[in-house]
Design brief:
The structure is a homodimer of 213-residue chains.
Chain A: H1 13-31, E1 36-37, H2 39-46, H3 50-57, E2 70-71, H4 72-83, E3 89-94, H5 98-105, H6 107-111, E4 114-121, E5 130-131, E6 134-135, E7 137-138, H7 142-148, E8 153-156, H8 163-173, E9 177-180, E10 193-196, H9 199-210
Parallel strand pairs in A: 3-4, 3-8, 4-7, 8-9, 9-10
Antiparallel strand pairs in A: 1-2, 5-6
Helix pairs in contact in A: 1-4, 2-3, 7-8
The first copy, chain A, binds a DNA duplex (24 and 24 nucleotides) through helix 3.
Chain lengths: 213, 213
DNA sequence: TAGATTGTTAATCGATTAACAATC
DNA sequence: TAGATTGTTAATCGATTAACAATC
């Protein structure tokens, strides 16, 4: 209770959505051996203004140094801690279609600390089959699994029509965040965050940019 | 030149990002046989306010009817036309890793008019192999292919370090929109739109929501 | 007709940018 | 020291919401 002087408070949504990008860039720079980064160079790399970068970083518990910028090692660590990715984040994947398969097999997510604990699907013909190292389990096992393994995030990769029902089951089982890969809008209580991957929507947004040109 | 009375002008970015969602929902309702939808019910379905919905739809060339709402058939048609998805949109996919494979195999995108014309990869060991009906081509063939097939959208699904170079090649070949599936930020001229899929970033955003709970 | 729902203007809210004193 | 860069406040900008006359 209480915090040690540095008031962290709530971080605005717009800022939270940029923090992962600062983390990716800072990680990259640190791996390249770069020790200091200025707000101007972060801004340049990410297509922002230096003012936005400084404003954003003022929300996390890390101070830059005048004339030098931000130490990449420290910044990376604090960004990871702030986001909660300094330790494994437990996920389940629901829906073993093409997109689901791809995510389960994508090593990058594991490397970044997102641990897929189990893969579930409704379809009797795929239950028991394998995706990489995962044996696909039936939906009837999901709720207990999420509870027992203390899974935080559910990745919803099912057909549009099934999305809300799956989301409801995940929430009931205790998931606190949902990554929605479907085209459906998913309703959840205020205590549960939903982030939409919006892949089809992104393509449609691009179609608008591209059309009649 | 000029338009027939209804000034459409530029549609704000925030609105363009919601139009695909209205389209998805309207499509769904129309398929269910629903003929009219109100701003309040669209808002309820998508987690918005009815005010936002009416404001947004005022940007497209379609009028609702007092006391009845919006005709789903007409609304669907005009939304599709406004976004430029009333005809095939030609894409290429660069990078035949797990994520790229999944997109190439995902029938939903084809059904929605996004036509993958070709799949390209740098890696000699995969060139010539097949993904579904696609034979993977080498990167050396990409620029000519994009020009000849008049491809509008490039889907970038390569490792972080290769993202900018691939984007540059796509832009040089004439692509007008890029769907960026990598964690890298990609720079492009103002004439080219870039939309980031942000899958890892979304997971990290969820990690923040989920942490210490 | 009465009432429901649109379209639009004005008010509010939040996010971004500019500016600059503090500081290393 | 002089100059570069942060942290922060204030100003601007854009997006969302409220309100209500028009209308079917």
């Amino acid at each position: 209770m209480g915090n040690k002087g540095t008031a962290l408070e709530v971080i605005p949504g717009a800022v939270v959505r940029r923090l992962p990008r600062y983390l990716t860039q800072t990680q990259y720079l640190r791996q390249q051996g770069v020790e200091w980064v200025s707000s101007a160079s972060l801004a340049e790399a990410l297509g922002l203004t230096s003012s936005t970068v400084r404003q954003d970083l003022s929300y996390i518990d890390f101070k830059g140094v005048a004339k030098r910028g931000y130490g990449t090692g420290g910044l990376e660590k604090v960004l990871a801690r702030t986001l909660g990715v300094d330790r494994d984040v437990r996920c389940v994947l629901v829906g073993a279609g093409n997109l689901g398969r791809a995510l389960a097999l994508h090593e990058e997510f594991v490397r970044q600390g997102f641990k897929i604990m189990g893969v579930f699907d409704n379809h009797p013909s795929v239950v028991g089959k394998k995706i990489g190292r995962f044996v696909i389990k039936g939906m009837n096992e999901m709720a207990d699994f999420v509870r027992e393994q203390q899974v935080g995030i559910g990745i919803v990769s099912v057909p549009h029509a099934a999305a809300q029902a799956v989301a409801d089951q995940l929430v009931a089982a205790g998931a606190r965040g949902l990554l929605n890969l479907t085209t459906a809008h998913v309703h959840a209580p205020d205590t549960v965050s939903v982030v939409d991957a919006r892949i089809l929507a992104s393509l449609r947004e691009l179609a608008y940019a591209v059309k009649d040109i």
